[in-house]
Amino acid sequence: MSGETDKTVLGALRHLIHHGPLSRPELGTALGLSRATTSPIINDLMRRGLVSELSTTPQGQRGRPVALLDLDDERYAVTGLEIGSDRVLAGVYSLRGRQLLRIERSATPDAVNPRGLLRHAAAVLHEALDVLDQEGRELLGVGVSVAGLVDATSGTIKYAPTLGWRDVALQAGVAEALGGRAPVLLDNDANLAALAELRRRRRDGLPTTSLVYLTGTYGISAGIIAGGQLWRGERGLAGEVGHLIVEAEGRKCVCGRRGCLDTRAGLSAIIATCLENASTPRRAGRTPIGISAGVEEIASRAQSGDAGVLEALADAGAWLGRGAALVCAMLDPRTVILGGHYARLAPWLLAPARESFRRALLMPAPEYEQLEVSGLDAWAAAEGSALAALLALADGISPLP
Question: Family per UniProt (predicted)?
């Protein structure tokens, strides 16, 4: 293929990733191509096994079935790996984003050094890929997400406060563990979760021009979508909103400073405050280990009506709303989305968050709700990691099969 044709093929693949299923005329119109030009491009993608036709049920008694184009859901897979201080998640996805397999393994405390945690993550990844091999699917790429400042270009973690890592070449480590089987990329968990949310909203027909996804996992980071594209900032380090100072001389943060938003609305802070203020004391030996276990513990207590936990969650929600308002003051997105474990705690966080959010906004949007809860669960970053591996094909970073 020529260079220009190559770009058009990649553009068609990219458009179907975000907007499929589409008819051939719809795809051609979106790409600004004639039917004669569109057909060979579609045929090329179908020959590669990346795109297939779906037959839809006709409307009414006399209509003919309409063939729609979408990503092929049977031949290939992409994998997302999320590495955290308390757990490693590996999710295998079809090209349309259907989750084929999920594996969650806790990370032991002594594994929080880079080599130990990488070995643990590699074992989880190989466990997932063994299942993939049994199903006969071909792996197209692996995306890896970590909470912290990530240089996606070099695949290096510049600083991950919850892990205590600096300048860790994690992408190279995962690629070595994978043995060159497929391309590997690395990015911040908020960026990757934002990509997953963007595709979900596009395929659901929701507004997607601008949004900010706030993580609810190991720290508060923002995945920023501007002009329909992921915005990384000048050095690729945008979005660490959890370390905005919101309280002068406030609580000490893991970053070494005081008064960061993370100390009031981050999951570790929420869990600690809720358990400290719980009306019913914890039984000996029942201290939750890790963010996920802690979230489930306080959700259970909130559901049972524990007054101390409910009060602490309301306070955390108010701080979260103020933080979201600061994000809006700086970036003016249409929507701020609370994701990760915030979605699990939304029944108790959302109302106070929205109240403080509206009070803090300079110019609220009266015609729609700006603060929403993600439609994705705590696996958003893993799903976004897999999606990023797929988008790397459409961006020409990884070779087409």
Answer: Belongs to the ROK (NagC/XylR) family.
Cβ(356)–Cβ(325) below 8 Å: yes
Residues 299-308: what's their mean pLDDT? 96
- Residue spans per domain, the chain: 3-71, 76-194+381-394, 205-375
State the Cα–Cα distance between residues 157 and 37, nearest whole angstrom.
43
Domain 3-71: give its CATH code: 1.10.10.10
Q: Which residue has the higher pLDDT, 377 or 346?
A: 346
Q: Which residues touch 299 (CB under 8 Å, ≥6 apart)?
A: 344, 345
CA angle 16, 17, 23 (to 5 degrees): 20
Cβ atoms of residues 373 and 342 within 8 Å: yes
Other CB atoms within a 10 A radius of the CB of residue 395 amount to 12
CATH architecture of 76-194+381-394: 2-Layer Sandwich (3.30)
Q: What is the pLDDT of residue 2?
A: 47
Q: How far apart are CA 194 and CA 339, in angstroms?
A: 9
Q: Check if 76-194+381-394 and 205-375 are the same fold.
A: yes
Per residue in 240-251, pLDDT (tens digit) is 899 999 998 899
DSSP letter for 85, please: S
**pLDDT at residue 58 tops 80:** no
Q: What is the pLDDT of residue 237?
A: 79
- Helices then strands, counting H and E runs in the chain, come out as 13, 15
Measured at the alpha carbon of residue 358, what is the angle toward residues 368 and 226, in degrees to the nearest 5? Answer: 60
Residue 46: half-sphere exposure toward Cβ, Cα within 13 Å? 13
- Topology (CATH level 3) of domain 205-375: Nucleotidyltransferase; domain 5 (3.30.420)
Q: What value does the CA radius of gyration of the chain take, rounded to a whole number of Å?
A: 22
Encode pLDDT of 15-39 as tens digits. Answer: 999 998 999 999 999 999 888 889 9
